[in-house]
């Protein structure tokens, strides 16, 4: 591999580590570490929201699917994220007004200890899989770029993303996200004209790629598009890696505008990897690149292989830095989410009720390292589809928690009984469909999970309503959580 390419990517990795070190100097409290002191403005909000959700599935995964079965319709994988941000434009300011640090903390202060604990477990476990998925995507690029073994690449990526995340918390993650978002967009945009030139122009692509691949809904069915929208809305609404940005917003305006700008970024970006997938298919069909080269290690290597064969070293370096940015910007958020939940909602509530602010921050950092180790192991052993891994992780946490979390901000009768039933039975329903123990009209697992959640949440909340008849949160008391209403700001 050209030395220029390696130097660009190494420089990028070193900059990420420096940002982590720099951000660590700005951290003085646990609130600084977990929610960046609640000082994020609209631009920082937009950059970190978009970068968090535009990850391995949205770059390597979309190119893979566009090259394969989905064609141009693979763009919907990212477009549906943009649609989701339009909903969060409405809900985001409400989430911020709760002034909590984590989703399980909201459940605990709104519904009680048991729902808070269950939510912490349901939210924590999928973050390991989500982190692993992003490490996989980053390692693929590093492996192809340098010739290092896949296993060595996993170890390098895991170390870098863990180091800067642990050093600077959400401040580090936010700053790196903004830098990474710029690199993602620039790298992918620059790749298009060079690969298109190599393919002989767009007219050549159209002539060599089957017409059905250009259908906007042909490869990915309407059913799949709707499933993605439902999955993203449910998952982003309760996902700590996304919702923490709203908790960190400096005011309601920042939360609202950040969502709008992030949605626009998703709508713009969505077509770039899809087009690159079609160009790759055209190049293969013209015999310019042997399909066996791409399929040797799996179709997820399509974009790195395309870059190496069609672009000058500087562009390859920027593209690879951009792809690694896309995946690392999601991995760091997942790590921070896992660490925040364990320290804030398990350690401080059940293990060390008298833990100091600094101790909780230290536990957060240690947990992030432990989660990184587990995620690295999964990345080293996983052979499945990257997007399938992400979809299941998204779905599992959303099945039972979405309705109690969202409606808890609006519906005064939402109760402990309805929430407990929703959390347990909704999550179980997702797993049963995912593992094919039962079938639900051949729909994705999220649909049965949300149906079971809705029936149990509404039913039991009406039968056993919230006695406070209020959406206000109780004061946090780590010795004994009492339901003493205090205004939710």
From TrEMBL:
Biological process annotations from GO: carboxylic acid transport
Tagged with keyword Transferase: no
Keyword list (alphabetical) reads: Cell membrane, Membrane, Transmembrane, Transmembrane helix, Transport
Q: Does the keyword Transport apply?
A: yes
Enumerate the GO terms in the molecular function aspect.
Answer: transmembrane transporter activity
Which locations, inside or outside the cell, does it occupy?
Membrane
Which Pfam families would you find in this protein's record? SSF
Which superkingdom heads the taxonomic lineage of this protein's source?
Bacteria
What's a single GO CC term here? plasma membrane
Transmembrane segments in this chain: where?
6-22, 43-62, 74-93, 114-136, 148-171, 178-200, 220-239, 260-281, 301-324, 360-380, 386-407, 414-433, 445-464
Q: How does it sit in the membrane?
A: Multi-pass membrane protein
Region forming the signal peptide: none
Q: Which family does it belong to?
A: Belongs to the sodium:solute symporter (SSF) (TC 2.A.21) family.
Query: What name does this protein carry?
Result: Putative sodium:solute symport protein
